[in-house]
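Hi support team,

I submitted a single chain yesterday and got back a structure, but I'm not sure I'm reading the token output correctly. Could someone confirm the output below corresponds to the sequence I sent? I've pasted both exactly as they appear in my results page.

Thanks,
R.
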Amino acid sequence: MTIKLNGKEITVAPGEMLIEAARRAGIDIPSLCYAKDARHKSSCMICAVKDCRTGQILPSCATVPAEGMEVDAECPEVIQTRTLSLELLLSDHRADCEAPCRVACPGNFDVAMMNRLNEQGMHVEALELMRNTLVIPATLCYICNAPCEKICRKGTVGTPVAIREVKKRLVAQTDLNAIVRPAPNGQKAAVEGSGPASLSAAYHLCKQGFEVSIFEKDSAVLKNYIEAEKVPEDILQLEIEVIRRMGVNMQCGKAQMPDPSDFDLVVSPQTKSKQPARMVLEGYRMVTKNTESTESTDKPFNSTFSRFNDSEKKSLLAQGGSSGCLYCDCAGKAGCRLRRLATEYHIKNPRYAKNSISEALHRQKIKDGLWFEPAKCIKCGLCVYNSDDGFTFKDRGFKMKITLPEENSANIDARLADLCPTGAIYKINA
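Hi R., thanks for writing in. Yes, this is the structure output for that exact sequence:
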């Protein structure tokens, strides 16, 4: 049959749902409670469209088109319905996308991932993560006022994680002889100055294969840009030596930059920030901009919840690895469709308060590498409808929730993690 969608005629196969007909025609209608070839029931209304003849708002994942139907999938009423639905679903999603420590860090450092790697004995990988983000991580620890530690959720139930001390211990394990220069790309780059932004730019250009030279008018690297007296000399020199061994040529006492025509790329960091970690981040961004990186600059939506209740505090007090980290970031955020859609629909501060009855950070182990966090669940039902003797609904109305009886854990297929739209079911290393 033929219908009109957004003013264009499209052909619909017999029995095909409207959402699939639209997608086949290149019109991307979003959804959360629906997945192709999976059992589902319409519940989220994220796939809303408008029947132009009746004015009715319909869920396209449960609508079989009729001959001559006219549908609008992008009018203001549809966008308003989807946005309202997203905000209602977010009120039932009691979780952080990013850990507060990362949000607070001026350098956008993934503290929780560092702790995970460190506690699994992957010290080299944890150190590499730090350097690839903060470049001079231990130096920053001595001159930073540690907003990450001040906002650490563990601090609301006990003692906050000593994040700076973890970083310092990792840096102390640096093996300079293990540092390998990146493969050259045949291009040369010049970087003006040796402040945090310049060192960061030089480091990341070097990672991309540039032959990098820093030109510093003063006689020493970095010292004139930070409160160097707060940083032990051996730490400062160690972190500068790491950058040298990466292949960065540091030329001090140069009053003027050389002829730009001698280089394929010249970077002169200009930043108003006085926060060293933010300067490091800006140095990285200058490089990705100058090298025409395709990295998205859209700031993703970040779900947050306010405080732990008394019951949560009691259960979380004894949790945490050797560092004490609660890992309050979402392990499933990379594939979270709820977050992606909240970003696309420009939701910043949802109008409805969190009202989930599930405990935040309560994690139920399903089987090796597979976990379930009820507080992240938006009750779409995909896990219920697509597991036999597995997940199930409990109670009705506002108290209704999805649970997994312990005896049903063995029946769960790991592919359910791919169906889950929020990261409530996720895979992670044991």
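A quick pointer for reading it: The radius of gyration is 26 Å. Let us know if anything else looks off.

Best,
Support desk
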